């Protein structure tokens, strides 16, 4: 696992205290993955990884049956990584003080968010559209 995260034979032979912060983060990531917890929290997991390490982590999280049956919470600014590994998105709005769930990967979330912004802009321009928009939202909610 450490080799997949970029460790050379020389790095593997070093004591933990001799490793830089970035290499220690990789060791911690490997330990967390090896433990296979029911809930895995990853905060910016791609920050200290090489491209090969990021691709390995993507494959591991997206295709391994171990992680498909567990909860993995990822906080990341790496949109390509989010797109590859996420099946659901949670958006935390500090302004609206709301947590919103979106089914799908990051690109699908972005498309729906843009559609909603366009709808809100239309409603601001034409308040009478609010009623039909609310009916449409209610119909979607009930249909689920």
From TrEMBL:
Residues 99-126 form a coiled coil. It is found in: Plastid, Chloroplast. GO terms for molecular function: ATP binding; ATP hydrolysis activity. Residues 8-47 form the ABC transporter domain. InterPro entries: ABC_transporter-like_ATP-bd, ABCF, P-loop_NTPase. It comes from the Eukaryota. GO terms for cellular component: chloroplast. Keywords: Coiled coil, Repeat. This is ABC transporter domain-containing protein. It comes from Guillardia theta (strain CCMP2712) (Cryptophyte).
């Amino acid at each position: 696992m450490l080799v997949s995260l970029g460790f050379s034979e020389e790095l593997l032979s070093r004591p933990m205290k001799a490793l830089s912060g970035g290499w220690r983060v990789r060791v911690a990531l490997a330990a967390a993955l090896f433990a296979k917890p029911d809930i895995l929290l990853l905060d910016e997991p791609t920050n200290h990884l090489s491209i090969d390490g990021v691709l390995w982590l993507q494959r591991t999280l997206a295709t391994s049956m171990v992680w498909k049956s567990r909860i993995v919470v990822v906080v990341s600014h790496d949109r390509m990584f989010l797109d590859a590994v996420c099946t659901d998105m949670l958006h935390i709005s500090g302004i609206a003080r709301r947590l919103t769930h979106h089914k799908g990967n990051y690109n699908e979330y972005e498309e729906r968010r843009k559609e909603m912004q366009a709808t809100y802009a239309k409603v601001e321009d034409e308040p009478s559209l609010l009623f039909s928009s609310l009916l449409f939202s209610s119909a979607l909610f009930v249909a689920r």
